[in-house]
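Let's practice the habit of predicting before peeking. Look at the sequence and jot down your guess about where helices and strands might fall. Then scroll down.
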Amino acid sequence: MKRKQFIKTLVAGTVGMTTLSAFNRFTEDLGEQDQLMPVLFMGHGSPMNGILDNEFSQKWAKVAKEIPTPKAVLVVSAHWLSKGTRITAMDFPKTIHDFGGFPQELFQVQYNAPGSPELAKETASIITSTQVEMDHDWGLDHGAWTVVRHMYPEANIPVLQLSIDYTKGPQYHYDLAKELMKLRKKGVLIMGSGNMVHNLRMVAWDKLNDDEYGYDWAIQINNKFKELIRNGEHDKLIKYEKLGREAMMAIPTPEHYWPLLYTLGLKGSKDDITFFNDKAVAGSLTMTSVLIG
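Done guessing? Here is the structure:
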């Protein structure tokens, strides 16, 4: 829906006041505030978490109530890789069902949060290490909407996605994240969405219904990741391939790990670290999530 059409729809009274509030929110100037917005890394796990009322989704909702209400949410998802860096810049991003083999109920979900072309442009302007392209084709993939719909079920907060440049290495992503600090000062919730341990080739399919099950190596390296995060040893996390065989098993491909680096790059010297949803599932996945701030 184009902006002029959207305004006409509002005038006609066919869109609720919740959406009008969201429209006003993302068209207003994002001024700096005294309190830094927290930063999140979410272990998103299976797309089914998007519709399940389980301990993971319940904690996502609880975290949203415990932190300040953001002016907007910017998600760096493991599921949007691009050559170069892009940001969603449409008024209303579509809900992307980027998976297969799941119940029809999951494909029917539409998370109709607004976007914010204004915030997209502002984000692009504060990133100086690369040119950020405005994107009008993507939307919200399951790394974003399956989590955010539990956090903000009324879909009344603008949600954007920033892509991950797959041609770049870990240090690049960590450094790019630092350029986004200004958004924390403006009340934008920046959220990395992936999994610290994510090896689908080694999933224990017979343990999918267990509340908690992790291979020894998965639990060991997940604990190591947490130790390094807690101690602020980000350089070792950036150079994760030097952490040994367990790290390489946890990260056979880096796309689910890179969002963690975006989160860590935004940590300030006075920020606290809190872990939650700290469980292994299906042997070779961990849902461990991080709240910074």
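How did you do? The two ends are 36 Å apart (CA to CA).
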